[in-house]
Amino acid sequence: MNQGKEYKIDIPERFYSDAEGKPFEFCQVCGKYLLDEGTSYVVEKALKNYQSHDFYSTIFEYAICLDCHTTIQKGMSAESFQNLQKYYTAIVAEKGRQAIVINMNDFKLDNWLSKCFFTGDPIDEMEEYQVVAQFNGSKMVMNMPPMIIGESAIEEMSHLLSDKTIDEMNGFKQQFLGPDPELEEFIFGKKLILL
Ligand SMILES: [Zn+2]
Prior knowledge:
Largest sheet: 6 strands, antiparallel
Number of helices: 6
Distance between the termini: 22 Å
Bound molecules: zinc ion
Helix content: 25-40%
Number of strands: 6
Order of helices and strands: EEEHHHEEEHHH
Structural class: alpha+beta
């Protein structure tokens, strides 16, 4: 893909708010309206897979504007941030360029989002995974492709984070995502990774 140009597609239903049945409208943190063109934001969801029932449920979901996302990343210790960057860079280097280059002519979102970006493990074989993508107003931005983060990648990444960073993330979750029994497991199981 060329630098500078944004490749955008309509927001796939997979990235709608499950609670609302339509695209996210507001930043979970500051309440900013998201669907105006020029407003950049990220949507992240954690899903649980009931393999025997062929069914997924959403454990948590939110949209967060770029400003709030940046603020949260600043709460991450420099060491944790560098460790995550290194992890990502190493995976991408290992996979080669094909890993992150999308040919928009024959791009199939469901195919792309059927396996972990980092490990290649199929989501059908996972109990839990996260999905994250970037948006601009009412479009999904494909320059930084949407990504599945599978359970083993989450596990690996959580080991790269300092306790301070994990505390910061847990603070975020408790403040903005609210208490929920399944979410508690994510919070205290150190499972949420904000990229
Ligand atoms: Zn915000």
